[in-house]
Each structure stands twice: as C-alpha cells, then as structure tokens.
Amino acid sequence: MVNLGPESSSLMNTRRMEIDPFTFRGVGVEIGTRVSRDEFLIGWKGPPKGADFFIDPFDGSCKINFTKETAFSFKGTSLHAVLKCDFKTEFFVRDINEVRSYMDQLSWVMELQLVSSPLLYYRTADDDIHATVPFDLLDDEDPWIRTTDFTSAKVIGRCNSYRIFVPPRQGKKLKEAIEYLKKWRIIPYDCPAPKYREEPDFGSPMPDPFFCFHFKEKISFELLFLVNAAIHKGIFSHFQPREGERLRTVQIRLLKNPKMIKSFKGLGDSAEVRRLILLQQKRTVFLQRWSFPIGFSENIENLQTGS
Questions:
Q1: Contacts of residue 90, Cβ cutoff 8 Å, sequence gap at least 6
Q2: What is the pLDDT of residues 67-100, one digit of tens each?
Q3: Contacts of 69 (CB under 8 A, 6+ apart)
Q4: pTM of the prediction?
Q5: How far apart are CA 174 and CA 187, in angstroms?
Q6: How is the chain split into domains, by residue range?
C-alpha cells in the first residue's frame, strides 16, 4: 500500500525542499552556564574547525552538527579503534527559554538558554552517506543513531546555555533567524558580552555518567532531588558555593513572608525522577516516582531544618 496522503514521505520531502533552514557554517560552539548577569562559565568547547548550526522552520528544530574523531572499543577485547564520527545535537525552538545576542571580539554571538537537555546523535564514516542537500531528508532509513553525552565532563546534562559564534559576514542572516524566533514569542535580549572563564578542572572526566549529588547523611532524598533538579534546570551551578548562601537568604525571606509563597503561581514546569528497584530473590520490581514543580514551596521548611 502506498500512502499518497498529506503525511506521505514523497509530499513531506517536497515540502522539505521548499522550506530552507537558516544555515550557519563554520561557527564556534561553547556549552556552559550563565552563573550571573555578567559571567559565563564554559564547560565544553566545540571542535577547532567549527560546526554547522541550523534553525529549521520546517519542523521548528535547531541542530548543531560537527565531526570529531572518537575512540571505540571492541566488546570482549582490549582493542580500540579511532573513527571519524559526525555528531548532531538537536533541540526544538519551543525548548528555548531565552535568547541573547551580542558582539564578542570578532564574532556575533547568539546565546541560547534551553529548558531541557537536547537530543544527541552520531553516525560513522562507514555509513557511506552522500549529502545531496544541506538538510536532512525524511528518509525511513535514517543513519543517525541516538547516543549519550559525548563530553568528558558530562556537560550536556548539567549545563543549559549554548553560545553560537557566527562570523560577521553572516550577521544579516543571524538577524533574520532572530526575527523568526520572535514569531515563537521568544524575546531576544541585546546585551554586552559577559565575562567568561572555564570551569574548574575544565575538560576533566566526570566520575559519574550522570552528574548529581548522591546520598548525604541526615539529608532526605526529596531535598537532594530538589538540589539536583535545580542544577540540571540551570537555576544555579554546582561550581557556585555562594549560591547556597543566596538560597538561604531567600528561604529566610519566604519564611518571614508566607504571603509571598501563596501568591507565587510558578512557571508550570516540573522535574521528575524515577528509581527502579529490582529484588532478584523475590522476583519483584518496584518503580518509585517523584515529581516536583520547579519553584515549589512545599519544601521550604525542610530546607531550613534539613529534614
């Protein structure tokens, strides 16, 4: 059976070729956290040869593509091989929380703050890919493979700000892309370039595949989850010990003014974690789930007492 309706791959590919994405070649990329109004903490830098950045009105997606050599191990052996791989970082315009634009030295910079981590893909040179158009066609045989955080410091999962360095000659196209983002009710901010520095131990491998604070004596799981959720939402960085004092100040202020808590409606976002417990002896499986709205006030008293 051949699908000739509006969702057929033939018609979709025709539409695909009629809508051109905003394409920026040879851009610089940095992933990090804006730890204050005027300071940016860099967690990862893109390849020296640059990357390609796309904003695609066809499906409202944004992509950062680049190539790097990656080490692969052979299962059951100690052998390794280094292959050239293409990586793709993909998120949607609706995932953009904030856009800032400014000049930094000799480049235009678009700084994007995301509400959640992007999707990650890779493909190897063995896929024998012949790119006939500067965007992805809607093929059933998609060579891209989903993957996990490719940065040694696990930056993707704990940093939510992306700095895209666009050459000056593409400044006009950048302004057109920002005008497109305005249609999604994303208000761009024109601001001066922030002070920037690398994270402590920049580039060093993380001991955990997923960064988080683990069990701490006399601190409840709910409280630890709240702290981890705040870090992974980019509310503050774990490299900011002074933020703990600021949080403490906010707690005291809220406890003295409970009306502020009642009048706060929040943003409607929530963070969720699931813990899977397997008991092999009894062949029993438990699934525990916690879901907290970001900015919630139920644990204000717990934060104070540490219970």
A1: 61, 62, 63, 64, 118, 119, 120, 121
A2: 988 877 777 777 788 888 899 999 999 999 999 9
A3: 82, 83, 84, 85
A4: 0.69
A5: 15
A6: 20-206, 212-289
Task: State the Cα angle at 28 between 26 and 30, rounded to 5°.
Answer: 155
* 3-class SS of residue 214: coil
Q: Under 8 Å CB-to-CB from 18, ≥6 apart: which residues? A: none
Token pair recorded at residue 289: 């789930």
Closest residue by Cα to residue 109 from 63, 52, 61, 174: 174
Q: What's the CA gap between 149 and 70, in Å, rounded? A: 13
**Contact (Cβ atoms closer than 8 angstroms) between residue 155 and residue 211:** no
Closest to 116 (Cα-Cα) out of 138, 134, 151, 89? 89
User: Residue ranges of the chain with pLDDT lower than 70?
Assistant: 1-16, 125-142, 207-214, 230-248, 250-251, 254, 259-307
Note every long-range contact of 82-85, with CB atoms under 8 Å and residues 24 or more positions apart, other chains counting.
83/124, 83/125, 83/126, 84/124, 84/125, 85/122, 85/123, 85/124, 85/125
For residues 280 and 238, is the Cβ–Cβ distance under 8 A?
Answer: no
DSSP string, 32-48: EEEEETTEEEEEEE--T
Report residue 68 as tokens. Answer: 């790097």
